[in-house]
Write a structure and sequence with these properties.
This protein is an alpha+beta fold and 175 residues long. It is 41% helix and 22% strand.
Length: 175
């Protein structure tokens, strides 16, 4: 009975331990097996629920790199060649980058990494249009996210142009 109560109210560890003890005692005495199993099931449900909650809270500000939009601000500039997620924040907070263009490459077979990377040349004119004053600011640099062969095969055609800001700043560069 104790195991079932703790399993129901979220006392995961106590409910689990009592459930295991209850199963052992049920073998000896022949009763209480269903309550012990119920406690173990409830403890498992609580554990899964807590894990889902923790993962959701921890990743709530991370988005898939292919889902960023023009105007999104990034807490940090990703490092590495394969970027799966980025951390977006409000542009009112200090941020290290801002998405100023998302260019879509034409469909078809993967054109090769050189062709994909050549798209970075299209970012500078987009920055001039998005934020003319940034062209005169030495602290603003370009960072580009490209599709890879693997992401291309999954439908990714986005070349994402990001203005990096060093040092980080508040407010949008749009203007």
């Amino acid at each position: 009975m104790v195991a079932l109560i703790f399993g129901a109210i979220g006392g995961v560890l106590v409910g689990f331990v009592c459930g295991v003890v209850g199963l052992i005692k049920a073998k000896q005495y022949g009763s209480g097996r269903n309550m012990a199993i119920g406690a173990l099931v409830l403890s498992a449900v609580w554990t899964v629920g807590l894990l889902i909650f923790v993962v959701a809270v921890v990743n709530s500000d991370r988005v898939t790199a292919t889902d960023v939009e023009v105007g999104d601000c990034l807490a940090e500039i990703p490092d590495g060649e394969r970027v799966l997620t980025v951390k977006t924040i409000s542009c009112d907070e200090p941020h290290a980058g801002e998405v100023f263009a998302v260019l879509t490459m034409p469909g078809g077979d993967f054109p090769g990494q050189e062709v994909v990377e050549a798209y970075h040349e299209r970012c500078s004119p987009e920055l001039v249009s998005y934020s003319p004053q940034s062209m005169l600011d030495d602290s603003v640099q370009l960072y580009v996210l490209y599709p890879t062969k693997e992401t291309w095969d999954n439908g990714d055609r986005a070349v994402t142009c990001i203005a990096t800001l060093d040092p980080p700043r508040t407010g949008s560069i749009r203007g």
